[in-house]
Amino acid sequence: MSSEQHNQFLTEWEGRQEIAESMIPIIGKMYRSSGVILKIYGRTLINASPVTLLKLHRYVRQFEATELPIQDTLTVLQALQKMKLGPIRIDIGILAVQFNQDKSDLSLEDFLADKLGAGIRQIQEQVDSAPKDVVLYGFGRIGRLLARLLIERTGSGNKMRLRAIVVRKGSDNDLEKRASLLRRDSVHGSFKGTIKVNSDNNTIMANGNLIQVIYASHPKEIDYTQYGIHDALVVDNTGIRRDKAQLSEHFLAKGATKALLTAPGKDVKNIVFGVNTNDITPEDTVVSAASCTTNAITPTLKAINDKFGIIKGHVETVHSYTNDQNLIDNYHKGERRGRAAALNMVLTETGAAKAVSKALPELEGKLTGNAIRVPTPNVSMAILNLSLKKNTDKQALNSYLREVALHSSMREQIDYTTSTEIVSTDLVGARKACTIDSTATIASGDSCVLYLWYDNEFGYSCQVIRVMQKMAGLDFPSLPIKE
């Protein structure tokens, strides 16, 4: 490469970087003030750096075979900034491509009004609604990630507010330890922002959010209203209460009106957001968000069943170890889980395959499943081995799944990659329920094998947040919708 060519490439890069830098404050302001979540082909732009923004424009190549010009998305972004928007998800990458491919004489403003009009009208009633108070009951792996996700939504456009955390006191410096675990995470990195602890009032201030820490061993000991918390949605992360009667104990606490379980529920609705979301009604007071694996596999299983029909199948999950296992060999009531988690692959059971039917009844009795716990701290894989009613091949199947990931009602749940080099650590922090590894797809005749990556902590927590929004009466459309 000549010096002249090098300088040309450098100048082009600096020009694109300058555009990306100008987009960041617009993206942040729209998010903070109006709750607008902007994306590029399903990848969120919230808290993205300029370099990440540029990488996302290159990411589009796996779908459109060409890099998305950043000037095109800037133009769309500037036009959106002038519109009156409320809490909504908008994919500016898809909008930019669609506008360039549009053969009509519509201006960009008219094009956006046509594509977004129905969704904008849908959310008008929510714009002026009062925020929903949220209490996290339990503060383990999922509880702390939910806290991070709720805190990052700070702003006037936010309609869910983290008001309190309920835990059992572990030591004299319990509050400082809880704050430290929120501040630092060995898997997901440090907290993006500032955290201050007030030991006198048992509060944590995180990015301007005042969070009350309440010490209690049972909901009946709590009066949320004394902290100014009313009609709260309690998110139970303990896993101790699994049925409706037990979860209803949360209503013994004054100020709590709804409860969500972040684990499979026994006699309550198990919701996989994007699949049976509409099963949640305003009258529901107790709901389960199912398990991380059920959330990972059910959307893809629905997509496959809708198009090809599933006769039967087996689900094998290669799952990162969890706190339920022992660090070194010791007694455990579960089979094999007593053996050292960081030294062994551990064959164990999973109820995820059977649990699919709670969200997708048409697959009742059609799936079996097992799990292998492996020595990694996060990110798992589900392998779906399916017998189909219709024949297909790898190209046709992947083409369909790519379309589902981009344009279907489950695009918030299903991601898609064409990378031949992707490994588990690349998926840490993935916000969708699963990512289809298209290069690993096997399909011939009436059978197929699909490989689905999923961040069993963060991706699942994002699904929980979506269920929380639905329970709070917040329906945020994802636009544009493909006609």
Question: Mind explaining what this structure looks like?
Answer:
It is a single chain. The two termini are 45 Å apart. The protein contains 14 helices and 20 strands. With 483 residues, the protein is α/β, with parallel strands linked by helices. β9 (232-236), α10 and β10 form a beta-alpha-beta unit. The protein has helices at 3-34, 50-59, 61-64, 70-81, 92-101, 108-122, 124-127, 141-151, 174-183, 244-247, 292-307, 352-359, 394-407, 458-471; strands at 36-40, 43-44, 88-91, 132-137, 160-167, 195-198, 203-206, 209-215, 232-236, 256-261, 269-270, 286-288, 310-320, 346-348, 367-374, 380-393, 414-417, 434-437, 442-454, 478-479. The chain folds into three domains: 3-126, no CATH class; 131-263, NAD(P)-binding Rossmann-like Domain (Rossmann fold, 3-Layer(aba) Sandwich); 292-456, Dihydrodipicolinate Reductase, domain 2 (2-Layer Sandwich). The chain is globular. The mean pLDDT is 93. Strands 6-7-8-5-4-9-10-12-11 form a nine-stranded mixed sheet. A seven-stranded mixed sheet has the order 14-15-13-16-19-18-17. Strands 2-1-3-20 form a four-stranded mixed sheet.
Spatial strand order of the main sheet: 6-7-8-5-4-9-10-12-11
The proportion of strand residues reads 15-25%
* Oligomeric organization of the protein chains: single chain
Shape: globular
Mean pLDDT across all amino acids: 93
Summarize the main sheet: 9 strands, mixed
Main CATH class of the largest domain: Alpha Beta
Task: Characterize this entry briefly.
The chain is α/β, with parallel strands linked by helices.
